[in-house]
Write a structure and sequence with these properties.
heterodimer, A: two-stranded parallel ribbon, 12 helices, B: 258 residues, Phosphorylase Kinase, domain 1, Transferase(Phosphotransferase), domain 1, five-stranded antiparallel beta sheet, three-stranded antiparallel beta sheet
């Protein structure tokens, strides 16, 4: 094609530059902060909103919350460096036209300063981002449990998302961690961390049912964490989320993996094409992610896109309890 | 020039750039800063071109201009000294400014595709050699229509990669830069990708297909941390986009209108 002088054969060399970039910028933590940044404090927050606007008429809410306790070792820092790339990737791949992304962090309510941090839903017009404000905990109890239940409680009851409310499309919630949840939400912890008056405890399984009604929820267990590959942890989440449990062998591919999961969910790409894309970026995550996503892809209901019948309007006849 | 160099009397002016005039000088182009206060930018260009020659992957050498000689010029009447860079000539090349003017309705995106791809190759090669161009603008992107060639010129605004501070921006294009650059923040590799995206979307204009517009939007994010930083990885994404839009790549001859 054209003259051979202008070679565009760069694929073999593409991996080299990646290592030289992606400097971590956990500015809030690194500045010696010991408290949750005010913009991420869930206390007293009524709802975090993902709303349609003139600029973003069909918003799609995507939330990524990751465990920042000690068992995760260096993983939170790596995630902080990688995850800012998620928004652009979703746009460039054409998976989502108007993504709104929220980042948050999960700690341990029994012993941490920051059991829950929850940012705002952000579109592509924000200069700063909440990821840099996340406080790294490094604590945690050492009994293979963290306060995922508080995070799920917040996502179930303190988010308002137009994709779901107006279009019946669930948002996407990704939990990245390496441990199990506590058996249920405790009223005292909810009061202290979020400020809600909860009359009685809420069992974890009831909470999962509540959150998955609104959020298509995934659990990602990354390599490099203490309990990577742990059968008990994987079993715990598979019992609750079924096929939506992904073992991530290569942290470098975290954005591609999340993006591809969303792309599959949005019917924007076929599984085969998506996995080919993942291979093209030279990720070593291919095989493990392929296995996880193959199961997820196979479990989807077929989609037919046609105009809705005229008689579909009118009120629903049931009463929600 | 100091030492043996081109004769600077009877120079034929070829073009006026943002800060320098270009003169025909033998086999090359002599570039002289109009304002001696811009000598530092001329020095920077010579350093970057040397660094690219020595450190960039030789397979991609064609994407950069050749520095024949870096010297000084003194005007005997005023005593003013100017840095002078003698650059290898680029016969048959046209700037993207010229190309855009020749296609008032915009360039067919299937033709712009090879230019976009090669621009990303050039940028990625420079970054890997430790240089950020800093002013990837239509007047600095030269293409050879028939050979599908591309050379990124004017390295006066360049900065060390991966995080250098720009010394200047091009006044006419001030509104093209991402907001943190005129504010004096360090520029990363994402700056060149940002400006390249602006160049290509400007070139294609209203002919841009929606998926390509979405791709561009994903390169022009307000937060620098969210922007793509590796031009060569982005090229892989761009190739996927082209395949989605147009299927397997085919060669399309390109010519400027007569």
């Amino acid at each position: 094609m054209g003259s051979g002088r202008w070679s565009t054969d760069v694929y073999d060399a593409a991996a080299r530059f990646r290592a030289a970039t992606g400097a971590s910028a956990f500015s809030h933590s690194d500045s010696g902060a010991a408290r949750v940044h005010p913009s991420l404090d869930p206390f007293g927050v009524s709802v975090r909103e993902s709303r349609d606007s003139g600029e973003h008429p069909q918003s799609l809410a995507i939330a990524v919350l990751f465990d920042v306790t000690g068992s995760m070792r260096r993983v939170p820092r790596a995630l902080q460096a990688k995850l800012p790339q998620l928004l652009g990737l979703l746009l460039r791949k054409g998976y989502v036209a108007h993504p709104q992304i929220m980042f948050g962090a999960i700690g341990d309510a029994t012993c941490d300063r920051a059991p829950l941090q929850a940012g705002q839903f952000e579109s592509d017009n924000r200069m700063d981002d909440d990821l840099g404000r996340i406080l790294l905990e490094g604590g945690g109890g050492g009994q293979k449990t963290e306060s995922y239940e508080l995070a799920l409680y917040f996502m179930a009851r303190h988010t308002a998302i137009d994709c779901f409310e107006k279009r019946g499309r669930r948002g996407y919630l990704f939990l990245i961690g390496d441990e199990m949840a506590y058996p249920g939400v405790k009223p005292a912890e909810v009061r202290e961390v979020i400020g809600d008056g909860l009359q009685a405890g809420l069992p974890f399984d009831a909470l999962v049912a509540e959150v998955t009604a609104k959020w298509d929820t995934y659990y990602i267990l990354p390599a490099g964490a203490s309990y990577a590959g742990d059968a008990e942890v994987l079993g715990f989440w598979r019992d609750r989320l079924g096929q939506n449990v992904i073992e991530l062998a290569d942290l470098n591919a975290v954005c591609e993996t999340i993006a591809l999961t969303v792309g599959l969910g949005e019917d924007a790409i076929s599984l085969d094409d998506g996995l080919a894309d993942l291979g093209d970026v030279g990720s070593a995550a291919g095989p493990a992610v392929s296995r996880a996503l193959a199961v997820i892809g196979a479990g989807r209901a077929a989609l037919a896109v046609t105009a809705a019948p005229d008689d579909l309007g009118g009120p629903s006849g049931n009463v929600r309890i | 020039m100091s030492g043996p160099g081109p004769v600077t009397s009877a120079l034929i002016e070829l073009a006026r750039g943002d800060i320098a005039n270009l003169y025909q000088a033998g086999q090359g182009l002599l570039k002289l800063a109009r304002d001696p206060a811009d000598n530092d930018l001329m020095r920077r260009e010579a350093e970057s071109l040397t660094q690219l020659r020595d450190q960039a992957d030789a397979r991609f050498g064609a994407y950069f201009p050749r520095l024949v000689q870096a010297g000084r010029h003194e005007d005997p009447r005023s005593g003013i000294q100017r840095r002078a860079n003698l650059i290898g000539a680029l016969p048959g090349f046209r700037s993207l400014t010229d190309v855009r003017s020749a296609f008032p309705a915009g360039v067919d995106p299937r033709d712009a595709a090879w230019m976009w791809r090669r621009l990303l190759v050039a940028i990625g090669a420079a970054h890997r050699a430790g240089v950020i161009h800093g002013a990837v603008l239509p007047g600095h992107v030269m293409i050879h229509p028939a050979e599908h060639g591309l050379v990124l010129v004017d390295w006066c605004y360049s900065a060390p990669a991966p995080g250098g501070r720009l010394r200047a921006v091009v006044r006419r294009y001030r509104s093209w830069y991402p907001p943190e650059v005129p504010a004096g923040q360090p520029a990363g590799p994402d700056l060149d990708i940002w400006l390249a995206t602006r160049c290509m979307t400007e070139l294609i204009g209203a002919r841009v297909p929606p998926p390509m517009a979405a791709f561009a939007r994903g390169c022009l994010l307000a937060s620098p941390a969210r922007r793509p930083r590796d031009a060569w990885r982005l090229l892989a994404e761009f190739d996927e986009l082209l395949e989605r839009l147009y299927g397997p790549r085919t060669y399309r001859p390109f010519a400027m209108p007569a």
